[in-house]
Structures are given as structure tokens and as C-alpha cells.
Design a protein that fits this description.
With about 210 residues, the protein is α+β, with helices and mostly antiparallel strands. It has helices spanning about 1-10, 170-175, 180-190, 190-200, and strands at about 65-70, 85-90, 95-100, 105-110, 115-120, 125-130, 135-140, 145-150, 155-160, 170. Strands 1-2-9-4-7 form a 5-stranded antiparallel beta sheet, with no helix packed on it.
Amino acid sequence: MLSFLLLLFLLPSSSNALDFCVGELTLPETPAGYPCKPPAKLTVDDFIFTGFKKAGNTSNIISAAVSPAFTAQFPGVNGLGISAARLDLAPNGVIPLHTHPAASELLIVTQGAILAGFISSANDVYYKTLKKGDLMVFPQGLLHFQINARGINSVAIVSFSSPSPGLQITTLALFAGSLPSPIIEKVTFLDDAQVKKLKAVLGGTG
């Protein structure tokens, strides 16, 4: 029996199927992720991502940028239940209230300071100003936000418990789409002028 186990240990593996499944991005994505890239086509670069070296472009309405390393940008995380992103917040930068339907999030500040928080399903609010080296977790599906808290460029690296965490920004869902203004007014208690002002800023219709 011992000699048989030793033989199994010494035999070379004939497949990477149980180790990983680098995404083949030329094929359609499925609910389980992308199909696996053929082992013969794999290189070490499939397991390396270099997109966090430069700051994202914060010249936008929220003065912030998110540089993702999800499956579509980093095929090596396909099927592994993890991904990451770089968050850049210029002075006055903000990531508005949003959710990730498919993942919990872990954020570590690497530069500056960030006011971050989330709202529980009981509407309890948990927020704090995070400094360099501080870490905060945001449970899956809950509304959360990040705000520059120091007036200098602030940076964080975030990780997710899914290679495709999903994203829905509450403000954009309400005011950047085609949801009719009368419905928004009913569900938010905002008046018509406020709704139309926000739609004009964010490009919504209806």
C-alpha cells in the first residue's frame, strides 16, 4: 500500500483541471464564469495583473476612479472566488452609495484617509475615517460608500469574495436611467424640481 501511494505521488499530473481555470475571454461568460483556457496556451502572465501601478482618472463628477481586476481584466481569478480593485479618490472625491450583489468587500487604505461606511439591513450605520494601513469589511449586498477624508489624493486596494462582484450605484440607478420622474418622486419623497435637477446632472430621462 505504501509503495502504491508513493507511486501516485511521483506520477506527473496530466491536468490542471482541479487547480485553476484561467478564463478564456474569447468565449461567452456563463453563470459559473468563463470557460477554461486550454492548458497549452497558459503562461505565467495569466496569473499576474499590473493595472494598479497608475492612478485612475479622477476627472469626473465624483472625483474618483475604480480600476478593477475582475475576471474580464484579470482572467487568472476566473473561478477562484476572489478579485480586487484600486480605488483613487481625489480631494472631495466620493464613491456614492452602492452595493455589490455578488460579493463582500475588504478595503485597505494605502495612502491618505478615507471616510467609509455601510448600512445594515436594519438601517444601522457603521462608518469611520480610515487611515493608511486600516482595513474595513463591507458585507455582501449592503449599501456602502467611501469619501476622501483628508483633502489629498487618497488610495485604497479592495478585494472581493467573487471574481465578478457586480455593482449597482443607487444614485445612478435612480437618476441616470429612464425610471419616470413621478415614480422616483413617490419612492424617494423628493419633489419634481429636485428629481429633474438630478436627472439633468446625471443624464437621466423620463
